[in-house]
């Protein structure tokens, strides 16, 4: 593998991360808090969240980290790291962050699927991601998002969980960016 081949996915990752780091989603909301107040009896919600354009813009680049057709997706980077001659500390740090990314998605939220157990953050995240934002060609996920939007309560709660998950995943991606910088420095010194 040439040095260019070794560096390309890592550099692409950094480029795409830097784009989302400059996005309105991050710049306007990173130091501000997301807020959600719900009146269940009246099915009303008061939200302080990013606007839809900020979310859509963020998702356009975020998808590079989760869609496997991209060389800088976390799954492809995992394979790439296995092929590189890097100190085990760097490879292990990457793997820990990738595992943490998945752990966030696997955590249960505190409301359920109408008698079928609780949703996970991943259930909500992937439903919005593939059912509304990144694509709309997954009928099952699209149907789920439409069901949630039938009441202010479910739309607000699931939408809020989606945004909180995006925030949490952003910080994992940020740590991976820094690991990639260390990997690039190591490759260039070889």
Name its key features.
190 residues; mainly alpha; two-stranded antiparallel sheet; 8 helices
What would your notes on this structure say?
This protein has helices spanning 3-21, 24-29, 52-62, 74-83, 88-106, 121-133, 139-148, 152-189, and strands at residues 35-39, 44-48, 108-112, 118-120. With 190 residues, the chain is mostly helical. Strand 3 and strand 4 (118-120) form a beta hairpin. It starts with a helix and ends with a helix.
Question: How are the strands of the largest sheet arranged?
Answer: 1-2
The shape is elongated
Radius of gyration: 18 Å
- Sequence of secondary-structure elements: HHEEHHHEEHHH
In brief, what are we looking at here?
It contains eight helices and four strands, in the order ααββαααββααα.
How are the SSEs ordered, and which strands pair?
Blueprint: H1 3-21, H2 24-29, E1 35-39, E2 44-48, H3 52-62, H4 74-83, H5 88-106, E3 108-112, E4 118-120, H6 121-133, H7 139-148, H8 152-189
Helix pairs in contact: 1-3, 1-8, 4-5, 5-6, 5-8, 6-7, 6-8
